Amino acid sequence: MRTKKVFVLCGLLLTALTFGQIKTTETGLITDNDLYTSSKNDMYYTNGIELFYRYLSENNNEKISKKITEFRIGQYIYNPRFINKEAVTINDRPFTSYLFVEGGQSFFYKSESVLKTDFQLGFMGPNAFGRETQESFHHLIGYKKVYGWGNQLHNAIAVQAHVMYSKKLFPAKHNDFVDLHFQSEANVGTIFTGVSTGLLARIGFKKLRPIYDSNLHDASVSDVPQYNVREFYFYAMPSVNYQFYDATIEGSMFSNSSPLTFDLEPLRFNAEAGLKLRHNNFNMSYSFMYRGRELNDPYTNTNAGYFYGSIRFGYLLN
């Protein structure tokens, strides 16, 4: 009788531990800054912050491993190269910012293909509070004062749609530590309209997890018990971008009253590389981002390609 009770107790304990390992939601923070790459590199896309919450959604499609719903709120801030007092009239990119809320769904197929769709609503311009955010942050950390926000782009309403598709290449030639993916995405809206395509490679320091269970495209949430989960890999993605429209450079498509705008350099080469880590409930990453020259600058002829760093923290919840 006592032995039976012990087995029942062990069974209940095992069940409790099993359910304790199901993590169906994740919340976290993404922070971008050019200071994450160099203390002397403070220009163009100068700061970004996003808060996200995602959860596992009901899925009735046999070809899909997971369907994930996600919400974000974020702000991006843009500056010219020179932000000192003497260079107020020397601008090679407009001052502006973009504030948005986002909702979207991601579909992770058993073939390790991924389809992501999302929609954003927000503001570009003074209503996005970029000036207040940057000036307060520089004051807080004792960094140099920013001059030139008086020239920022005027307000514009943001309505954006975004889609990304990724497909695993050479699936028959499986390797536990290396894989390659073709990835394309498109943005359409009142702030950004453009398309990008490129190749993404993962090189694992540990055995790679399938894309539908990996943090590469934010698929760590699961309704299946997971124990002692580890991910650690390097990734790299060169890509080509063709930008049809960018309100943060050209100003609002509905008004040409902004004090300073530029024509686009539509064809760009971009690159991204970094390290991604998962340790049970924690997701972390550091990425180095390079963006090719984005605009034609007839005034100062100083605009060039640039780079910045992106740091991400996520925590998985029941």
Question: What is the topology?
Answer:
Elements: H1 2-20, E1 25-33, E2 44-57, E3 64-79, E4 96-109, E5 114-124, H2 130-141, E6 156-169, E7 178-189, E8 192-204, E9 230-246, H3 247-250, E10 263-264, E11 267-279, E12 282-291, E13 295-296, E14 306-317
Antiparallel strand pairs: 1-2, 1-14, 2-3, 3-4, 4-5, 5-6, 6-7, 7-8, 8-9, 9-11, 10-13, 11-12, 12-14
Protein traits:
Lipocalin, two-stranded antiparallel sheet, 318 residues, elongated, 11% helix, 12-stranded antiparallel β-barrel, 50% strand, mainly beta
Shape: elongated
CATH superfamily: Outer membrane protein
Tally of separate helices: 3
- Strand proportion, as a percent range, falls in over 45%
What's the pLDDT, averaged over the residues? 91
Category by helix and strand content: mainly beta
**What order do the strands of the largest sheet run in, or round the barrel if closed?**
1-2-3-4-5-6-7-8-9-11-12-14
Number of domains: 1
Question: Which H/E pattern describes the elements?
Answer: HEEEEEHEEEEHEEEEE
Would you state the CATH class? Mainly Beta
Query: How does CATH name the architecture?
Result: Beta Barrel
Number of strands: 14
CATH fold-level assignment: Lipocalin
Radius of gyration: 22 Å
Uncertain runs are 11-20
Quote the distance from N terminus to C terminus: 35 Å
Fraction of residues in H or I helices: 10-25%
Main beta sheet: strand number and arrangement? 12 strands, antiparallel, barrel
